[in-house]
Here is the input.
Amino acid sequence: MRLQTVLELADALPPEVRPDLSPDPISALIPPERCSLEEYLEAFQVTVATLQTEEALERAAYELCEDAANENVIYMEIRFAPLLHTQLDLKPRDVVAAVLKGMHRAEADFPIRTGLILSALKPEGTERSIEAAQLAAQFFGKGVVGFDLAGPERSYPPQIHHEAVEFAHAAGLHVTIHAGEGCCPEQIKEAVDLGTERIGHGVYLFKNPATEDLVAERGIPLEVCPTSNLQISGLMETYADHPLKRYLDLGIKVTVNTDNRLMSQIDLTHELEAVTEAFDLTREELERILLTSAEAAFAEDRLKGELKEKIKAKFAD
Ligand SMILES: [Zn+2]
Here is the structure.
């Protein structure tokens, strides 16, 4: 979300549901430069509180696409946890429909294509993760492309939600699972065993060489988010400490993503610049990362082909 939009939406809320922005909005919304995943997730209480109406959800989705298109993003997958947005009177399906409406309006206005991934939160009960997977299935083919498990890792291994993941697979949805973001390399293997097509973050993958080999061999892409990884993983002092370069050199498929543009105060251009500078990436390596992203997209083959052609044409230019 844009900071300005959060503030405007928060201001418009009745006092009894208005999020606490004390001592100041920046510290309520922007986690410290180094923090735990749990602390990082606290800032979501504010943004989620402002996104409880169809208008607010549609606006946030539209603005996100507009901002991404303005930095030349040609395809974006957005993910969020729809069941967090039913605090007032919205039904889960109204939540998803409002976000899709914003994305589709932006697709008509800007040169960007989009897909939506619905997340279930690991600490919640399995009935909630199954509900989120069912919701994703209802909108499959209407803009929702995949299902995801996200949230705190310690004490919440992805295996708990195997039923939701199996449901998503059976419904034909793509599946990605957050694993090894702030701890717990063993959960990456679990995610692979659950049939995940991509791994959210996977920062801790190198801690488990057998799983690292498996991820390389199966060609499972990592969704790397450099700044948020630096912030949360507890493993790095600078971008240059990110295992991303090791993964690239091992032939593991790496994609570069933003995680949270507001809370990490970055955009995709910043993230690509950060890793290019930290590792002195060549044009070929950067092109490979972008082509891997297109290939790993949860999109139809035809669209993926178009994305790859656009990337190749730009790099040839
Ligand atoms: Zn994430």
User: Anything to note?
Assistant: Residues 3-299+306-316 form a domain with the TIM Barrel fold (CATH 3.20.20.140).
